[in-house]
Design goal:
This protein is mostly beta strands. It contains one helix and 14 strands, in the order βββββββββαβββββ. The strands form three sheets. Strands 3, 6, 7, 10, 11, 12, 13 and 14 form an eight-stranded mixed beta sheet that branches. Strands 1-9-4-2 form a four-stranded antiparallel beta sheet, with no helix packed on it. A hairpin with a 5-residue loop joins strand 10 and strand 11. It is globular and about 50 Å long.
Length: 182
C-alpha cells in the first residue's frame, strides 16, 4: 500500500449534507472546537457485507472551525476519515485535501461505505466504492473482511493542524458467525 505524506483516507460516499442538530446524537471528545458522531445504519451484518456509517461533525465553539474535505464544494468529506474495528483499521487510499470553514453551531454529515469487495455491492454502492482491506494494528496482517464477532468501532480524522485526531463516539458492530444460521 502506498504511504502518503498527508495521512488522510478515502471513504466512498453517497453525498454530504448540512444536517439539523440531533438531540439524540452521541458525540466524541471535543478537539479544537469540534465534536464528531458516528452511527451505523445497521448494527449487525453478515461476514463480507458492506457496512454503512453516518458521520457528523459539529462546531461547538464560538468561532469558525475548519473541516477537511476532499472534493470541491463539499462541506465535509468521507475521504478524510478512517475506521478502527477493535484491533483492526480500515484505511482506503488517499486524495488531496482542502480546509473548509464551519460556522458557529453548524453540523455537517456524510455517509461512509466500508466494504471489502466490489462484487458484493448493489449498483448504487458500486458507484461509490473504493477498495481497501482491514489491517491488524499490531501484526500488520490484512483481511478482505473481518471475522465474526462484536467490534468496538470508532471513526477518526486529523483536524488539519498537525497530527491531532478528532475521534467519534464509540459504537458496537456485530458480524454474524456461521453458528447464527443466517
Amino acid at each position: 500500500m502506498m504511504r502518503l505524506t498527508m495521512a488522510f483516507w478515502v471513504m466512498a460516499c453517497a453525498a454530504f449534507t448540512v444536517v439539523a442538530a440531533d438531540k439524540d446524537a452521541v458525540w466524541g471528545k471535543k478537539l479544537d472546537g469540534a465534536v464528531a458522531s458516528l452511527r451505523a445504519l445497521k448494527a449487525e451484518v453478515k461476514p463480507g457485507e458492506a457496512m454503512e456509517f453516518e458521520l457528523r461533525v459539529k462546531n461547538v465553539s464560538g468561532d469558525k472551525v475548519r473541516s477537511l474535505t476532499g472534493r470541491g464544494g463539499e462541506r465535509m468529506s468521507p475521504c478524510t476519515w478512517k475506521f478502527q474495528f477493535g484491533e483492526w483499521t480500515w484505511e482506503p487510499p488517499g486524495l488531496s485535501y482542502a480546509m473548509v470553514p464551519l460556522k458557529r453551531g453548524e453540523t455537517v454529515g456524510v455517509r461512509c461505505l466500508v466494504a471489502p469487495k466490489r462484487e458484493e455491492l448493489n449498483a448504487e454502492q458500486r458507484r461509490r466504492f473504493l477498495p481497501a482491506k482491514f489491517r491488524h494494528r499490531k501484526t500488520g496482517a490484512e483481511l478482505a473482511h473481518l471475522p465474526a464477532g462484536t467490534y468496538r468501532v470508532q471513526g477518526w480524522s486529523y483536524n488539519g493542524r498537525g497530527r491531532a485526531k478528532l475521534w467519534t463516539n464509540p459504537i458496537e458492530i456485530r458480524i454474524q458467525g456461521e453458528k447464527d444460521g443466517r
